[in-house]
Amino acid sequence: MNKVYDAVGIGIGPFNLSLAALTNDLQDADILFLEQEASFDWHPGMLIEGMDLQTPFIADLVTLADPTNRFSYLNYLHEHNRIYQFYFFNRFTIPREEYNTYCKWVSSRLDNCQFGQRVTDVSAMPDESCYKVTARSTEDESERSYYAKHIILGTGSIPNIPEALQGFPEEDITHTSRYMYLKNTLKQGNSITVVGSGQSASEVFYDLLQDQKEGAYDLTWFTRSSGIFQKEDTGLGKEVFSPEYVDYFYNLPLRDRMESLENLSTIRNGVDPKLLEKIYELLYNRSIESPLQQITIQTNTAVNTMEPGDNSQNRAYSLQCEQWQKGEKFTYPADKVILATGYKPHLPDWLENFYEYIEWEDEKRFRVTADYRLVFKDARKNQIYTLTNIEHSHGSSATNLGLSVLRNQKIINSIAGKEIYPIPQQAVFQQFEMKKLY
């Protein structure tokens, strides 16, 4: 007889890794996690030395749900004899590179994670009251089946590259997710252009700016945004990343939810103020010697298309740009282009097996319950929980590392059918709507 897990989690990024860490030692939730990569590695192409995680260390994989959990970041430091070094480091944030090392440490100690297993199909088995998960080993292509009452979709996101900017050699035109792999090649260009805004664009621009004098390349930064904005860094402002705001956001109509996402874009996607200070400080000091003729920073500018350059420009590519606020179009030469154009949800092909059975809010966004289950048209007991493609339903909890722990608390409680991890109440000082008095 086949073993039936309480759930199978598909994909092991930080979100499902947190879920795995919170359930590894539980008797009430037997969950297996499968990942096609050979080991855990979080955005290795953007592990630029000296860049920090944008959330505090307390928003690790487990602490906000269980501060005593052995997979906490502080216990990682303790076991690596780094606790005093971190104490003297005297910061609430941590290097992104160390966060990745911490996650690797956790994943190597979990019993419920299997790497090198690519899920090729998921099908419902109503007679058995479970799902069948088919996975193929990336090492020897052998196939194996797993069975589970529920599925947890954690396939994350993939680079979002506009169609008009696709099809060029990666060593010339690349996404920020590949930056560290191609960094030396990119710096061989005579002209480098960074396209996009937000933290990733800022980190890449700063890294290139530091080495510009040695590389002697022209450096340009174009962003469609109307400004280069810092992230919200005050206590009240950050309360939108709270359980109360997630509940408030979830109960809004879809139109209002999408409008709220737009209104909160600078809070959610802004740049670390300290990084912006570093960039400005470097620009200021470098301008003492001479005007910054090799540096261009321009907002309100979209890069719409790209084509090979001509001999007159002496550059490999010609960017077709528009200063959209003034409606002015222009061409701009470049040898290398780095796209900080964000990410989009990665929905696996097997999910199409269920499209006709689930409810949709619009043509792209499926309906999701408050505890992160896809809403099926029939009242089935076997659920598909999703950590992917939920920005429209749960807002800031979709991509925030700290709120991912809260999400996992709700999922664990739902699967177990009882409260394993209590959900925080009155976690913030403000309220987001008037409470009924009677």
Automatic annotation (TrEMBL):
SUPFAM superfamilies: FAD/NAD(P)-binding domain. Keywords: FAD, Flavoprotein, NADP, Oxidoreductase. Its cofactor is FAD. Its EC number is 1.14.13.59. This is L-lysine N6-monooxygenase MbtG. It catalyses: L-lysine + NADPH + O2 = N(6)-hydroxy-L-lysine + NADP(+) + H2O. Pfam families: Lys_Orn_oxgnase. PANTHER family: L-ORNITHINE N(5)-MONOOXYGENASE, MONOOXYGENASE. Pathway: Siderophore biosynthesis. It is an enzyme of class 1 (oxidoreductase).
